[in-house]
Amino acid sequence: MEIKIAKSAGFCFGVKRAIDIAFQIAHRKQHVYMLGDIVHNEDVVKKIKEAGIKNIRRLACGKGKILVLRAHGASIAIRQNAEAAGYAIIDATCPMVKEIHTIVKKMEQDGYRIIVIGDKKHEEVEGIVGQIRGKALVIDNIKNIPWTNIKKIRKACIVVQSTQNLEKTLAIVHTFKPHIKDLKFFNTICRTTMTKQNEIRKMPLQNDVMIIIGSKKSANTKRLYEISRSLNKRTHWCQSKKDIQPKWFINVQRVGITAGASTPDETIQAIVATLKRMP
To answer: Are 212 and 236 in contact (CB under 8 A)?
Structure first.
């Protein structure tokens, strides 16, 4: 059985950077905290915890404590509240996400209504809309566009959650153009996401079975699975080698593998090793 692994499978730059920062801070042996999970992957979260970084759900007294901001970023309010509580802030936000923050703040100052294409409850989206004074409009699906609100907008700036599906994003932008006179669109989908999606639009057609590796909490992994599944029904989403089922590979000659941006290399290799042991 031939196994083909996507070149872009696994950690993206932003995730690797955030994890490296977290471990560097943990080695200081100070009181280190994080609001929520550093990335959407259970294995990574476990290692962060083992390194001594405590996961908290709300801010308390931060005197003598360090708060690491996650790869997804955080709102201005969270940062201000943390500083007011006494935390020392270490910012591990992905640089690509910080670029989105810069765009929305600048465009709001220039009088544009901010529209974000992304998952409404995703931490990255919450961080983006938390950069501005006004209320951003978040669009998660072309079927859920509030046209009554859209038609009232004269000037708008569109940005995108960095892990969104490019094709679906462009379709939404296209529907807006006839309705908003002054429309600025910034394609803020990160390069790694686009590379992964370009690969996953080819691999399902070249392989009998596709394995998509990543946490069920991971938005970018979900997107890879959806694209692959639309092209090859024999697509399976696995979090670890325990999810692999031998019946998937009966009379299979070629298997394609890719993994979400927060999936560790050891998880990918464990699944590859499991496949290689199959008769």
So the answer is: yes
- CATH (residue range 13-94): 3.40.50.11270
Q: Nearest 5°: CA angle at 167, between 165 and 172?
A: 95
Any bridge partners for residue 236, and if so which?
211
> Looking at domain 2-10+192-276, which of 3.10.580.10, 3.40.50.300, 3.40.50.720, 3.40.1010.20 is its CATH number?
3.40.1010.20
For residue range 124-170, list pLDDT tens digits in order: 999 999 999 999 999 999 999 999 989 899 999 999 999 999 999 99
* pLDDT surpassing 90 at residue 240: yes
Question: Which residues have a catalytic role annotated?
Answer: 124
The tokens for 82 are 């943390």
